[in-house]
Amino acid sequence: MSTSPNIIAYQGLEGAYSHLSCRQVYPEMEAFACESFVDAMFMVERGEARLAMIPLENSTAGRVEEIYRLMPKTQLHIIGEHFEPVNHCLLGLKGSSIEQLKTISSHPQALAQCDTHIKELGLEQIAGLDTAGSAYELSQAPDPTHAAIASSLAAELYDLEILQDNFQDVNGNTTRFLILSKEGGIPPLIEDELYITSLMFTVRNIPAALYKALGGFATNGINMVKLESYMGSGVPKGSSFHLDVEGHPDDRMMQYALQELGFFAKEMRNLGTYKAHPFRAQNRPLPE
Length: 288
What we know:
By secondary structure, this protein is α/β, with parallel strands linked by helices. Helix content is 28%, strand content 32%. It has three domains: 7-85 and 173-181, Periplasmic binding protein-like II (D-Maltodextrin-Binding Protein, domain 2), CATH 3.40.190; 89-164, Periplasmic binding protein-like II (D-Maltodextrin-Binding Protein, domain 2); 195-282, Alpha-Beta Plaits.
């Protein structure tokens, strides 16, 4: 049983989408804001927090490359995943209106994702460090002609008004978070339950090593859902990869696939096996 404080760490200011995800998944835990991903992850490593909520990829902005470089430097385990829909809100001061607005600030990606709506309103864009920070700054320097793009949680925390919900140009923008713990543990295999196993490995420096290493998943009917290469530390002696597959280590076919991967790879590490988030089932293609 963990003796760590009942804290879940995240990167960003209060009101960030990472903070919102912490509230959604672990409302009973205290969410703790950290300046960097390193700070959040090493709080868990040192036992100062029980969990960390870390974004890995976004359907619009792509992967958070820093996480792939940080994971090998820790002994943390992935115990779950969470998919959070990004709902950008147009925030203003209490009692203000859209008609009064002249300027708007947020993280550059948020501004880009709301660009059409911003231009329709004729607003001057001001890039900020993050979404929640822009909301905080508006609360500290009240200006009825200025707006921020941030989460509904930021509106609540900084006492701002949501002038327009779903302000993004295209719906469906989603961020995938990993839930990290110092303590590992593989959930028991339950029939008809979908599991994700996340692996990190370096291929041997031989021709077609990656092709051979992954061949076992194809021949044993294991679906690979993510493969990312990343730059390891030190002198490169083979490429390093992060791999997500739909499977559980106690499944016989998965065991065959892992044996083949192990033969052609080195420094292989199971980062975690965990139940797939319901978002995956909702977005799986129908069988032909």
